[in-house]
Amino acid sequence: MNASTIRPVWPITAALGCLLLTSCAPPLGRPAASPPPAPPRVAPDATPADRALAHLAARLDRDRRAFEVYTDAFAPGNHFVCPSTFWVPGALSPVRVDALGSDPAQGYATCIRNEFRVGPPGLADWGGCYFLNGTLGESGPEPNWGTLPASGYDLTGAERLVFRARGERGGETVSFFVGGVGRDARTGLPRSDLPYAETFHARTLGYVGLDRTWQEYTIDLTGADLRYCLAGLGWATDVAHAPWGAVFYVDDVRFEGAGGVFDARAAAPRLLSSYDTRPPAAVPQPGDSLGFDLTHRNVALTQDNALAALAFLARGTSDDLARACTIADALVYALDHDPELGDGRLRNAYQAGDLTVPPGWEVNGKPGTVRLPGWWDPLAADGAGAWDSDPWWLGSDAATQGWAILALLECARRTGPEEPYLACAQRLGDWVEKSCARAAGGFSSGTLAWAALKPEVRPVRDDSRSTVTNLVLAAAFARLGRATGEEKWGALSERALAWVQEMHPAGADLWWLGDDGAGGATTVPVQSPTQAALLLWWAGNDPRHEPVRGTLEAAQRRFGLRCGGCGLRGYDLDGDQDGLAVAATAQMALALRAHGVRGECESLLAGLSALQGSPESDGGGLPEACRAGVTTGETLLLAPELAVPGSLSGRVSASATAWFALAGYGRNPFAGVPAQ
Predict the structure, then answer these.
(1) What sign does the dihedral 246-252-255-258 (CA atoms) show?
(2) Residue 331: which of 354, 305, 310 has the closest Cα?
(3) Are strands 667-668 and 673-674 parallel, antiparallel or unpaired?
(4) Percentage of residues in the chain with pLDDT exceeding 70?
(5) Sequence-ordered list of residues with C-beta below 8 angstroms from that of 32, at least 6 positions apart, any chain
(6) 3-state DSSP helix/strand/coil percent for the chain, to nearest 5?
(7) DSSP character at residue 238
(8) How confident is the model at residue 105 (pLDDT cuts 50, 70, 90)?
(9) Cβ neighbours of residue 72 closer than 8 Å, sequence gap 6 or more
(10) Adjacent-strand bridge partners of 376
(11) What is the three-class DSSP state of 496?
(12) 628, 274 Cβ separation under 8 angstroms
């Protein structure tokens, strides 16, 4: 499922804000890094926008207060991701472990399936598995049993290891333990041939008889020296305890405690995941795809995180500011700690959860680099398996840089000049100027999209120009000019706007989407509703923008709908009336509010708030569409000769939730001021 977007269609329907009305309020000052924000709570009288923001806060905080070993395959909070089997030397391995295992009867998307085999000649009569941190090899994680330094976690503060397990038939007898890697099993002392052993002897439950139903188990770690931990959970069994073999499942493995590592994690920069993925439905819905839930489980789109930061700042409590700074700090760190890049740009996506690779994992000789999103494809490399990622995620789009600039500048405005946010925003702007400016005017979509379905994934230019991208950049450059006083940013903003004017020729009621990079214009106005409305709002009486005054009504006619499935009124992306796109509807509501049409704005938002009570949501998050399969107007390349229409997943989306919150608070994300 390696899909490359021929023309990325951003789920934003973006437009330009009221740049000249930026608030001049003094900086609030950066909140203290410790203690971290309190866990989000939703008051009984909370508004729908407050509930949306609580969802984003909970998503950002999701694994701050626990240290997870395994929740689901590719989950962003997973640690010790190198399952390493062991058995009697000189014999064949009796152990099989599949971290992509499933337990359909229980409805879990993934869990760890473990098997101990007996019977065939040559098999060892004893074996097990340790989930090691390992180190990074050429094709993936490789075991480290204590031979390499600086490759373990400091888990000081952990008081117990908790996990769930069940037997396939019931009665399977297995020993579970943690610790002791690199130490003599009998004496507990470090082995001389393994100089970098763990700092504590194994703690064990002994042999446990498993039930057919899921049961929770706890290994007490009180008093253990956890300064250097190479592994999470381990298990072992033998023919005496499992004479007919054993198949059993393990899930939800985590360290729990207080202080130490948990306080450090709470204060660390991080990004939130873009989607709430879920197990496959008992009765699949149209457009459902288990592949999407696996491949998108840990992705944190940079644009989505910028929008979330802006949504936090729209309400602006001290906890909101702290969470926005958590995201901004992550963007600053990513700019300087990419495993390959170093030229002043961000990638389109990273991994959610822990920002950096595990200790001991050096990518291209660089320790502490940011984690990139992806999944393990067991069918790749002729069945040997390999790590894979969407090539576009690894690229750098100009609009991504623009959204990051807007979020960083708003954080800088709230915290003061001593923080690195303004300098980071300037570096991103410099990269766009250097790499994306087009001689024909405006800015290209990005010089580093990534070629899909080739033996080597290499950067390629994307010379197409997008109206949306140039509007976002115009806003970002204009705000950079106000923040720095440098004239060049105003000139770059005008450059973007001048080309945008070409995308609205005389007689057109809607904006063109852009061009293909070779001189051919794309007249499909997929993202026009809010572009035109917010551009008119920004322009005021500027005569250059007089022709757009009728576009708000034209957009309402072309893209407005009452969805036959959910019954709600709203807007779609491509005018085919096949379903409601939540972000586009929230953006249109914000545009209507900006034009003084408050009643229609509130009506649209009230309708969207009904989706917060859907089974997909936690009471606050909103899906990216009212159902899976709503088309976007984009084209996805799934194979060299297989292009399919793009569609929305229907999963709860950080982008849709952030736009809903921004509309609910009436906050223009392009300028940081009320939309009125």
Answers:
(1) negative
(2) 305
(3) antiparallel
(4) 82
(5) none
(6) 30, 25, 45
(7) E
(8) low
(9) 108, 109, 110, 111, 277, 297
(10) 387
(11) helix
(12) no
Q: Which two tokens stand for residue 88?
A: 């009697």
Amino acid identity of 337?
H
Cα dihedral 440, 446, 448, 454 in deg (nearest 10): -90
In this structure, what is the dihedral angle of CA atoms 532, 533, 538, 542, given to the nearest 10 degrees? 60
According to DSSP, the β-strands at 362-363 and 465-466 are unpaired
Residues 6+ positions from 55 with CB-CB distance below 8 Å = 617, 618, 619, 620, 621, 652, 657
CA Rg, the chain, in Å? 26
Kindly report, residue by residue over 65-99, the tens digit of the pLDDT: 789 999 888 889 999 999 999 999 999 999 999 88
With 0-12 / 13-18 / 19 or more C-beta atoms within 10 angstroms meaning exposed / middle / buried, residue 206 is: exposed
Task: Record the pTM.
Answer: 0.90
E strand segments, 72-214: 82-87, 95-103, 108-116, 126-132, 135-136, 141-142, 158-167, 173-178, 203-209
CA pair distance 436, 513, nearest whole angstrom? 18
Q: Is the dihedral of CA 411, 412, 414, 417 positive or negative?
A: positive
Q: Rounded to a whole number, what is the distance in angstroms from the first to the last CA of the chain?
A: 44
Tokens encoding 120: 């065939």
**Length of the chain as a residue count:** 676
Which string of DSSP letters, residue by residue, matches 217-239?
EEEE-TT---SSB-EEEEEEEET
Four-CA torsion 237, 238, 243, 246, nearest 10 degrees: 30
- The single residue listed with the structure tokens 């709908």 is 561
Looking at residue 396, its amino acid is S
Collapsing DSSP states into helix, strand and coil, what is residue 586? helix
Of 393, 578, 513, nearest to 13 by C-alpha is 513
- Residue 665, classed as helix, strand or coil, is helix
Beta pairing partners, 84: 130
Secondary structure of residue 251 in the 3-state scheme: strand
The amino acid that residue 387 corresponds to is W
Residue 637: strand, helix, or coil: strand
Of 87, 65, 24, 426, the C-alpha closest to 261 is: 65
Residues 63 and 72: their CA atoms lie apart, in Å, by: 13
